[in-house]
Design goal:
Layout (H helix, E strand, L loop, with lengths): L1 H9 L28 E5 L9 E6 L8 E2 H11 L7 E3 L14 E2 L3 E5 L8 E5 L10 E5 L30 H4 L16 H9 L11 E5 L6 H6 L23 E5 H8 L3 E4 L7 E4 L6 H5 L12 H12 L4 H5 L4 E7 L7 E7 L20 H17 L1 H15 L23 H15 L11 H14 L13 H8 L1
């Protein structure tokens, strides 16, 4: 008894339970904002007021709402097809503002001005020429017939798919940020995820090693864009198969699972906002990721190519251009890829209404859905035929339905005894047998009540099946025998 009491006295007792971890807050981040309404607007000087809002970016870099000039300039350069020489002004025809790359823009509205083409109307722009060996600056040939006294209507790249990667033309601070890691020990080939996780060993934002995932910088779904822009030249491993190049570990980064989701939703990007490597830049006000990570440096991005990080910035920014392209009624001057031309582009005027998306389709809609008029015509024909030849009517209706829409899952088949059963000229007794047979098929398996006359009923329905066996090439025309029964009664 004494030994038992002594043992109990030696067992430690839990005395401390900590409260829940508090969510991230801006209490210790007096240098940034988390106000969703803080934005900086960048306007096109050649479009009328109300249609000139080219790009709107969240302004979280200052507690009163501000945006680093480097972020604005890089994003605007991308959506203007890598135009060189663009600058910000406070008015449509004003001078460039006096600002350095890492200064914070505090005004709410700016105009982004691209110099008017010189001579014949050539726009200087970084561009991958048709000769892939020539990665020099390309000059877009544009016939600019606008009034030289009016602001220049420079073209806009409408989408990531139309954007040409600016090889050898990245901003200087981007080009100098390739970090080489120590040589890796030889190891057997592995997949994209294993390579990226093995290299980073932890989330590049948090340093956590739990619930981490490898994610692509240039998205896997943009494989065609990847090859069209010759991005394979930046991978480190030898490309033995075309579909492997985009899965090179230089195009990957390690993030915690929740951060991976936000990254794929274009909620944040990696930017050059100082002389000290890459920084997290949030593109929307999240309650936890923004206060925890906005304007924080990443861990060293070893062997990650800056070209892929810059590509991800473009991928996240282009959806924000759709509002400018869709608004108003003015023709929008855009630079886009020519059809089936690789990287050859053209500059065209496109009506704003062409960029407006149609209203969303209902969940039950299908690309092959028939028009309402055709459906009504079919219904009228079906109603007429149902009384003259119900069997043929049901067969035709079901055949039209299969041709006009796809099924969402396995459909129940009509039992053999009820397939191809004629209904015209049936007596009331035979119709009653048919109704009961249909109800019986709908009952769950194992439900087999015995009733007087069951043998007679089975003989009749089997006889109907045998009589019409082989008709209509074995197709089962009936979708609901109740329609047939009601029409024939």
């Amino acid at each position: 008894m004494a030994d038992s009491m002594s043992h109990q006295e030696s067992i430690p007792v839990l005395t401390t339970v900590y409260p829940p971890v508090p969510p991230p807050s801006l209490a210790d981040r007096a240098d940034i904002s988390d106000t969703p309404t803080h934005h900086t607007n960048f306007r096109h000087p050649a479009y009328p007021p109300g249609e000139d809002l080219l790009l709107r970016l969240p302004a979280f870099d200052h507690p009163d709402g501000g945006l680093t000039y480097a972020v604005a300039l890089d994003c605007l350069t991308i959506i203007t097809a890598n135009a060189i020489g663009g600058y910000l002004a406070k008015t449509r025809d004003g001078p460039a503002i006096d600002v350095t790359r890492y200064d914070v823009l505090m005004e709410k509205d700016y105009f982004f001005i691209v110099p008017r083409p010189a001579g014949d109307g050539e726009i200087e722009s970084c561009y991958l020429s048709n000769d892939l060996a020539d990665l020099a600056i390309h000059l877009y040939q544009v016939q600019d017939g606008s009034d030289p006294e009016e602001p220049y209507k420079y073209p806009i790249c409408p989408s990531f798919a139309d954007w040409i990667f600016p090889h050898n033309c990245l901003p200087t601070d981007w080009s100098s940020q390739l970090v080489s890691g120590p040589p890796a020990a030889p190891k057997p080939p592995s997949g994209f995820t294993e390579k990226v996780l093995s290299r980073d060993n932890a989330c590049v934002l948090t340093g956590r090693q739990t619930s981490i995932q490898a994610c692509h910088l240039c998205p896997r779904a943009e494989d065609n864009w990847f090859w069209r822009n010759s991005m394979h030249q930046y991978v480190l491993e030898e490309v033995t198969r075309a579909d492997y190049a985009i899965d090179d570990f230089t195009n990957g980064i390690t993030l915690r699972a929740d951060l991976h989701i936000e990254f794929d939703a274009c909620g944040f990007v990696f930017m050059r906002k100082s002389e000290h490597g890459y920084t997290v830049h949030c593109l929307r006000a999240t309650p936890d990721i923004l206060p925890a990570h906005h304007n924080r440096q990443t861990r060293p991005l070893t062997t990650i190519r800056p070209e892929f990080i810059y590509t991800r910035l473009a991928y996240a920014i282009f959806p924000r251009v759709s509002s400018f392209l869709s608004c108003g009624w003015s023709l929008k001057k855009v630079v886009r890829l020519k059809a089936d031309s690789g990287v050859e582009t053209e500059i065209v005027d496109v009506a704003a209404k062409e960029f407006r998306k149609p209203p969303p389709m209902s969940q039950n809609s299908s690309p092959r859905k028939r028009s309402q008029q055709a459906s009504m015509a079919d219904d009228e024909s079906y109603a007429h035929d149902l009384h003259s030849d119900p069997y043929q009517a049901l067969f035709s209706k079901r055949k039209r339905a299969r041709a006009s829409s796809s099924t969402t899952g396995p459909q129940p088949s009509t039992p053999p005894a009820l397939q191809s059963a004629p209904t015209s000229g049936l007596s009331e007794k035979e119709l009653q047998y048919l109704r009961e047979a249909w109800v019986g098929w709908q009952r769950p398996p194992g439900y087999t009540p015995l009733q007087k006359g069951d043998g007679e009923r089975m003989d009749f329905t089997q006889g109907l099946h045998d009589e019409r066996k082989g008709d209509f090439e074995g197709e089962s025309p009936l979708d609901d025998w109740n329609e047939v029964v009601e029409a024939s009664s």
